[in-house]
Amino acid sequence: xxxxxxxxxxxxxxxxxxxxxxxxxxxxxxxxxxxxxxxxxxxxxxxxxxxxxxxxxxxxxxxxxxxxxxxxxxxxxxxxxxxxxxxxxxxxxxxxxxxxxxxxxxxxxxxxxxxxxxxxxxxxxxxxxxxxxxxxxxxxxxxxxxxxxxxxxxxxxxxxxxxxxxxxxxxxxxxxxxxxxxxxxxxxxxxxxxxxxxxxxxxxxxxxxxxxxxxxxxxxxxxxxxxxxxxxx
Length: 233
Ligand SMILES: Nc1ncnc2c1ncn2[C@@H]1O[C@H](COP(=O)(O)OP(=O)(O)OP(=O)(O)O)[C@@H](O)[C@H]1O
Known about the structure:
The structure is a single chain. The chain has 233 residues and is an alpha/beta fold. Helix content is 36%, strand content 27%. It has helices at 3-9, 55-62, 85-95, 111-121, 126-139, 155-167, 185-201, 213-216, and strands spanning 11-24, 27-40, 44-47, 70-75, 78-79, 96-99, 173-177, 205-209, 221-226, 229-232. The strands form two sheets. A six-stranded mixed sheet has the order 6-7-8-3-9-10, with helices on both faces. A hairpin with a 2-residue loop joins strand 1 and strand 2 (27-40).
């Protein structure tokens, strides 16, 4: 295999010439315009860019929550832009983990049940899902909170549950949209470090949008958005 072919195989997520345009009033604005990006297996990348430049838009496209207006989103070698909604949902469920700024946990379920849920949807047995959820809670050092509902957890604990839920099905790629943006600096630091450790321990690839340059420095690479394109910083 040539070096070029080898590096393709190693690319878990690719954006190729991606464009996303919105109409605002009388104007069309191009948030992404010919954006290229490649994420390698086991790599962590921080996406650091000013508010409103398109970080969430990029993550939504990469996570197959939206379709680009042009260009391709390629996950594990499969071009996804023209696939059916059902196929995109299947890929998203098996290959993508998402963490948001706000935890979006299901309020009526416990921490453990929230982490079991995506596994049950994927067809795992209750016992398997419970074992994996318990392991993840222990890894995130909140095993003692397993039976608590989200409202009974601190902000940092809620985000650690949300991170555990995002990786519960062993995705290929973790996408996180300011996962610590809603936390005080000290809590943000330890939640981010726990996220980083979990990603590295499980060999995951991750793109993490953050405004925090100290936390971004923990990642393998940093990129920003400039004039609708992804550029290294
Ligand atoms: N569905 C939409 N319709 C119209 N405009 C949109 C839509 N989605 C996003 N935008 C615009 O695209 C721009 C980029 O939004 P996006 O949420 O991606 O930015 P961001 O970098 O994540 O910002 P923040 O850091 O504040 O979360 C914003 O100006 C936003 O108003």
